[in-house]
């Protein structure tokens, strides 16, 4: 609820910006709010959900994100950035209003020894008290502090390492690089309006993220991560093949850009090649949307024990945003050093590592309570 302040304040600064520093200030505030909500929302949803629908509700975090992105793409067809910032104030107001009617999570209330309030929250959320294994005795002696000694506890360090790895692998799959040059790829495929093409990208993400949310609690997390990683690996290989065929002589520019590589002259008779790029990108987005988009955020909210959930989740969110920044910033340098096809084959290699890591280390959390998941890491 407090995030409403930097959200609305930041968008107001952007809307009324008279210089670039006001834009920077507004972007900083909205980025702060987005960072906090990306940490708190998955944790809150996991703690108020019962196991049979936790995957569905947890996946809705990513679903709402891609719906918001699609909304921004659609609105951007007819509005300039100033009015888009005005629209950005609407969602935080609804969040503030609707959260006024939501209780604190029962698990948090039990930590605070507020048994009566926890019972009321359970009745509000689930209809009855002491539901789904949430009992006061499991939390009465919880120490909310974090100490280095806790890292010796397998219930702490194992999920912590898994969470960090999931967030790093999510970004190393190449999703931000793919999205960064989506418009350029569509332009070279002769789409008359690349902004409309972005709407198509947004629709793909929404549809397949929704499908993932609906099957999450039936199929399970691991199988969707493996399927997702396989699709993304194949897509990146195809992207690399596309660049290898269309660029027999790589550009040696020290500041490469896809517009340099994707040019009509270099493609010549291969006029159908841009469609291979479009197909590869669409296939990649489908794969990402059904697994590596929503599931790392869901697992982050599920696998950490309550006593370290805040710090551990924060470290994972920080890892995600740092990796996203690094991949996006260094993408052009990678293309110059490894060539475009080498860069996408590198992303494909990371996708293969995603699959191996999932098979070896990621536990299946489908149908388990948060307490059962913690017991799994303790070997019980």
Radius of gyration: 22 Å
Q: Which residues sit in consecutive blocks of at least 5 with pLDDT less than 50?
A: 136-149, 250-255, 264-269
Please provide the count of β strands: 0
Order of helices and strands: HHHHHHHHHHHHHHHHHHH
Shape by Cα distribution: globular
Overall pLDDT level: 82
- Strand proportion: under 5%
**N- to C-terminal distance:** 37 Å
Structural class from helices and strands? mainly alpha
The total count of helices amounts to 19
Care to give the gist of this entry?
By secondary structure, the protein is mainly alpha-helical. It is built from 19 helices and no strands.
Please render the helix and strand layout as text.
Blueprint: H1 4-15, H2 20-48, H3 51-76, H4 81-88, H5 90-99, H6 106-111, H7 115-126, H8 154-172, H9 175-180, H10 182-188, H11 194-219, H12 221-246, H13 258-261, H14 264-267, H15 273-290, H16 295-303, H17 309-338, H18 340-361, H19 370-377
Helix pairs in contact: 1-2, 1-4, 1-5, 2-3, 2-16, 2-17, 3-11, 3-16, 8-16, 8-17, 8-18, 8-19, 10-11, 10-15, 11-12, 11-15, 12-15, 12-18, 17-18
How would you portray this structure in words?
The protein has 380 residues and is an all-alpha fold. It is built from 19 helices and no strands. It has helices at 4-15, 20-48, 51-76, 81-88, 90-99, 106-111, 115-126, 154-172, 175-180, 182-188, 194-219, 221-246, 258-261, 264-267, 273-290, 295-303, 309-338, 340-361, 370-377. α8 packs across α19. The protein is globular.
């Amino acid at each position: 609820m407090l995030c409403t302040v930097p959200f609305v304040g930041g968008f107001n600064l952007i809307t009324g910006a008279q210089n670039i520093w006001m834009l920077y200030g507004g972007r900083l505030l909205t980025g702060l709010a987005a960072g906090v909500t990306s940490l708190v929302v998955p944790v809150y949803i996991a703690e108020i959900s019962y196991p049979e629908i936790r995957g569905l509700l947890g996946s809705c975090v990513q679903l709402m994100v891609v719906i918001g992105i699609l909304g921004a793409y659609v609105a951007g067809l007819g509005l300039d950035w100033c009015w888009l910032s005005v629209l950005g104030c609407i969602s935080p107001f609804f969040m503030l209003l609707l959260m006024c009617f939501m209780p604190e999570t029962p698990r948090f209330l039990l930590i605070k020894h507020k048994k009566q309030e926890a019972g009321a929250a359970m009745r509000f959320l689930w209809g009855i008290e002491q539901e789904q294994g949430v009992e006061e005795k499991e939390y009465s002696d919880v120490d909310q502090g974090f100490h280095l000694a806790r890292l010796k506890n397998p219930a702490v360090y194992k999920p912590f390492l898994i969470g960090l790895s999931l967030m790093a692998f999510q970004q190393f799959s190449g999703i931000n690089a793919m999205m960064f040059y989506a418009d350029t790829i569509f332009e070279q495929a002769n789409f008359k309006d690349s902004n409309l093409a972005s709407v198509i990208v947004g629709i793909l993400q929404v549809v397949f993220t929704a499908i993932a949310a609906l099957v999450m609690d039936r199929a399970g997390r691991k199988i969707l991560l493996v399927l997702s990683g396989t699709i993304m690996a194949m897509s990146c290989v195809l992207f690399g093949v596309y660049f290898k065929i269309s660029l027999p002589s790589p550009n040696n520019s020290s500041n490469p850009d896809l517009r340099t590589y994707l040019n009509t002259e270099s493609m010549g008779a291969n006029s159908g090649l841009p469609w291979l790029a479009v197909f590869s990108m669409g296939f990649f987005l489908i794969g990402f949307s059904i697994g590596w988009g929503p599931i790392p955020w869901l697992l982050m909210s599920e696998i950490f024990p309550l006593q370290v959930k805040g710090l551990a989740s924060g470290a994972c969110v920080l890892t995600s945003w740092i990796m996203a920044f690094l991949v996006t910033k260094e993408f052009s340098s990678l293309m110059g050093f490894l060539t475009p096809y080498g860069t996408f084959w590198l992303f494909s290699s990371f996708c293969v590592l995603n699959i191996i890591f999932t098979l070896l280390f990621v536990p299946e959390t489908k149908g388990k309570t948060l307490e059962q998941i913690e017991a799994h890491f303790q070997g019980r």
